[in-house]
Amino acid sequence: FDKIEPLFHHIDLILVEGYLSGPWKKVEVWRKSVNTVPIFSERKDIEAVISDDDIETTLPVWPRKNIAFIADEILKMAEVKS
Question: What is the pTM of this model?
Answer without folding.
Answer: 0.84
